């Protein structure tokens, strides 16, 4: 494990098929050369990620994305408005797409994103490769938004960390399927549903809308799970519970972490994962979570909290 901002060395490692923890504007990614089957396989092994859960391919530019997937007008509109930035688009793979099929996990589609973080941009340009990168945390656990989180999860692994401090947004990208006529929101994220509809001037479908069941293989019921048990939408603290607060905190908890004292959803979204890790580190076993409005990025916060609170599968 090595910590620094040596882009040249990181690019060299990627070309050797090794892994690099890359800061992005959303969260830290565990990056590998997207052309290299063995390197992609290593991501699945190191994370303990189920092989049916496909990976996002990070590219330096829209032009690079167009060489991998069948581009269309919707993709063009969203890329023009959101890239570089926290939006991932799922499109059909081109027949000549050189990205490892393991990254698509058996699907005929590929998720692509142009990250905005300057270090991610430098790395992508420095190595000249598309990079497959899931979030840099053990599968099913809380997403990493800082180098310290990455170190905690992968201390014994051959992973070089590019240390750029806290990820500025702190919540994963929004994932949309734009491969068909209808646009489908697969994972709510930092670009919210109403922003997508405003950009496109068209309806963006969610799971459950008009019998549409958009699914992403990675949207498992239990995910983002801290060690503690979560109780959502609480208005009273039970004895022994720590509190994850939003706005003015409820009385009665000895341990309190506040997502946003001002009740600001964007601030809350940026603190969510580090707050869950902080509460775990405090030794809390039960966490009461105050209600979070479902507006704007609140939809993504509530999505993550529901999965964090879901019963964990037995090991
Ligand atoms: O912000 C982010 O998106 C971060 C940074 C590192 O870019 N990455 C990230 O990756 O969150 P990950 O692997 O933790 O989540 C990727 C999500 C999963 O839910 C996965 O199932 C979905 O994207 N996904 C990837 N490829 C897909 C595909 N071809 N079709 C449908 N969903 C896909
Ligand atoms: Mg993840």
Structure description:
This protein has nine helices and 15 strands. The chain is an alpha/beta fold and 315 residues long. The strands form two sheets. An eleven-stranded mixed sheet has the order 1-8-2-3-7-4-6-5-9-10-11, sandwiched between helices. The model has no long low-confidence stretch (mean pLDDT 94). The structure holds threonylcarbamoyladenylate and magnesium ion. Magnesium ion is lined by residues 134-135, 143. The site of magnesium ion has 3 residues, from loops.
What small molecules does the structure contain?
Answer: threonylcarbamoyladenylate, magnesium ion
Please work out how many helical segments DSSP would assign: 9
User: What is the overall pLDDT average?
Assistant: 94
Largest sheet: 11 strands, mixed
* Structure classification: alpha/beta
Shape: globular
Strand order of the largest sheet: 1-8-2-3-7-4-6-5-9-10-11
- Strand residue percentage: 15-25%
Q: How many DSSP E strands?
A: 15
Topology:
Blueprint: E1 2-4, H1 7-15, E2 19-23, E3 28-33, H2 37-47, E4 56-58, H3 62-66, H4 73-82, E5 87-92, E6 109-113, H5 118-127, E7 131-132, H6 147-154, E8 159-162, E9 174-177, E10 183-187, H7 193-200, E11 204-205, E12 229-231, E13 242-245, E14 256-258, H8 265-281, E15 286-289, H9 298-309
Parallel strand pairs: 1-8, 2-8, 4-6, 5-9, 10-11, 12-15, 13-14, 13-15
Antiparallel strand pairs: 2-3, 3-7, 4-7, 5-6, 9-10
Helix pairs in contact: 1-5
The structure holds threonylcarbamoyladenylate (TXA) and magnesium ion (MG).
Threonylcarbamoyladenylate binds next to strand 5, strand 6 and strand 10.
